[in-house]
């Protein structure tokens, strides 16, 4: 794989994303959501997308705006229903979007497995629940486990705090969430950062995502939102 | 059969949710790593003094989570599992989602306190879906948390608003986990659960005998 590309605009960063792609989208609620890359993806026009994300959008920004634009065929997430997920709720009730609910830890671990070259793994989460129906179960050392398969993305859209010019990433606080795992699990990882710094200025001990996982980086004006009505 | 160690608090009514939070906090060992579920269990944090050294875990990637952020402290990059802005405490750390859930699943957390719709006498938990048609399913971290600590406690009212018991023989709602709850804290009393069934530890505003009458299970 070639060196990480540093791009001038978010439009360049999302260029070439094909209709029908599976896209891993970072963020937990609105913390860590790559708002600018998603806005660029809406302009870019790719449709019939499968989205993998923890939530199904908040209010009408970021992922919710992509859903509202009618570009998403299916979403895999752990927690679609939130105080401000009305865009998703309506699409779902109208049968306009397919939903696969995945326990949050399995969502993360299935992407980790994809990035780590693991073919499948046995996990105790969801044993005996409706979310284990139809899945292979095995007793190992007296405990029950369910067979889970990796989730691989064609693209990952994530946000980080800083990148150096090689694409080494550091994150900020709980906005890190799914970013490092998604970066490993996609064929092409696209990152928006608050700041691009000179190579050699990030403490190598503090780098969270090494540049090998990063394909495209674009610097954006930091935009932050909090979930309204969260309690 | 009533064991002599049950303490009946008959000079008072059932516990309020704040009092219940205080009762649970009393049972959280000093220095333990604890996850408090979204909703009522977050109240427990108000009753854990800093000198106890309890470290709070939040599923979205942090140990050492502090209280809710106020005013200028609000930072959109720092929230709890309910997406509410919070603050750091000295010695806190951040990690990604796969690590956060490996920490639960791997049995590294000491205590997890969750809310519940229903719990069975043998510790089955139902807390993610009412199973009503038209409800949008959303599980979040509930199934991971249900087996995510050495001790999984439930904090809930013992009866629904219409008076139905929530501690029952077998859950009628979709399960979150099987045999995963070891103790439940309710407004009327505290119960230990095991594969053999439920036993009472203490009661509030009700006698063990009355409790046994109002619950559809046989207490050990």
Descriptive notes:
The complex is a heterodimer of chains A (231) and B (220). Chain A is of the alpha/beta class and 231 residues long. Chain A has a domain at 14-101 and 152-219: 3-Layer(aba) Sandwich (Glutaconate Coenzyme A-transferase), CATH 3.40.1080.10. Chain A contains 6 helices and 12 strands. Chain A has helices at residues 10-13, 35-44, 63-68, 86-93, 104-116, 179-185; strands at 5-7, 22-25, 49-52, 72-77, 98-101, 121-123, 137-140, 143-148, 153-164, 169-170, 186-197, 216-219. In chain A, the strands form 2 sheets. In chain A, strands 1, 2, 3, 4, 5, 9, 10, 11 and 12 form a 9-stranded mixed beta sheet that branches. In chain A, strands 6-8-7 form a 3-stranded antiparallel beta sheet. In chain A, strand 2, helix 2 and strand 3 (49-52) form a beta-alpha-beta unit. Chain A is globular, with a radius of gyration of 18 Å. Chain B is globular. Chain B has one domain: Glutaconate Coenzyme A-transferase. Chain B has helices at residues 17-26, 97-105, 142-146, 208-214, and strands at 7-9, 33-36, 55-58, 62-68, 86-94, 111-114, 118-120, 125-126, 151-156, 167-168, 183-186, 189-194, 197-204. Chain B starts with 6 loop residues before the first strand and ends in a 6-residue tail after the last helix. By secondary structure, chain B is of the alpha/beta class. The mean pLDDT of chain B is 94. Chain B has a 10-stranded mixed beta sheet. A 3-stranded mixed beta sheet of chain B has the order 8-7-10, with no helix packed on it. At the A-B interface, helix 4, helix 5 and helix 6 of A face helix 2 and helix 3 of B.
């Amino acid at each position: 794989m070639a060196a990480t590309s540093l791009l001038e605009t978010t439009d360049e960063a999302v260029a070439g994303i094909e209709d029908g792609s599976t896209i891993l989208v970072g963020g937990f609620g609105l913390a860590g959501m790559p708002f600018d890359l998603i806005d660029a993806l809406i302009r870019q026009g790719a449709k019939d997308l499968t989205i993998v994300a923890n939530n199904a959008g908040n209010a009408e920004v970021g992922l919710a705006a992509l859903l509202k634009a009618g570009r998403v065929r299916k979403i895999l997430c752990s927690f679609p229903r939130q105080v401000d997920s009305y865009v998703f709720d309506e699409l779902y009730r109208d049968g306009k979007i397919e939903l696969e609910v995945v326990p949050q830890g399995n969502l993360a671990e299935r992407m980790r497995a994809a990035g780590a070259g693991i073919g499948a793994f046995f996990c105790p989460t969801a044993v005996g629940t409706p979310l284990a129906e139809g899945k292979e179960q095995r007793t190992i050392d007296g405990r029950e486990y369910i067979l889970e398969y990796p989730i691989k993305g064609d693209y990952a859209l994530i946000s980080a705090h800083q990148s150096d010019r090689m694409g080494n990433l550091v994150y900020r606080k709980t906005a890190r969430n799914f970013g490092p795992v998604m970066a490993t699990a996609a064929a092409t990882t696209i990152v928006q950062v608050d700041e691009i710094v000179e190579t050699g200025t990030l403490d190598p001990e503090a780098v969270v995502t090494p540049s090998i996982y990063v394909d495209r980086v674009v610097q954006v004006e930091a935009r932050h939102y909090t979930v309204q009505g969260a309690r | 059969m009533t064991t002599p160690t049950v303490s009946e608090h008959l000079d008072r009514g059932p516990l309020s949710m704040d009092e219940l939070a205080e009762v649970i906090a009393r049972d959280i060992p000093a220095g333990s790593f604890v996850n408090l579920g979204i909703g009522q269990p977050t109240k427990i944090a108000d009753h854990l003094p800093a000198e106890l050294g309890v470290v709070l875990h939040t599923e979205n990637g942090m140990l050492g989570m502090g209280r809710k952020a106020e005013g200028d402290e609000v930072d959109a990059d720092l929230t709890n599992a309910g997406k509410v802005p919070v603050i750091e405490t000295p010695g806190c750390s951040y990690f990604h989602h796969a690590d956060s859930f490996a920490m639960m699943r791997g049995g590294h957390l000491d205590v997890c306190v969750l809310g519940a719709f229903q719990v069975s006498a043998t510790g089955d938990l139902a807390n993610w879906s009412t199973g009503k048609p038209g409800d949008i399913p959303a599980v979040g971290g509930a199934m991971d948390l249900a087996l995510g600590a050495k001790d999984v406690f439930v904090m809930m009212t013992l009866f629904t608003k219409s008076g139905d018991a929530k501690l029952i023989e077998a859950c009628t709602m979709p399960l979150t986990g099987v045999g995963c709850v070891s103790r439940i804290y309710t407004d009327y009393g505290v119960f230990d659960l095991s594969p053999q069934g439920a036993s009472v530890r203490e009661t509030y505003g009700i006698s063990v005998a009355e409790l046994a009458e109002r619950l559809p299970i046989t207490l050990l």
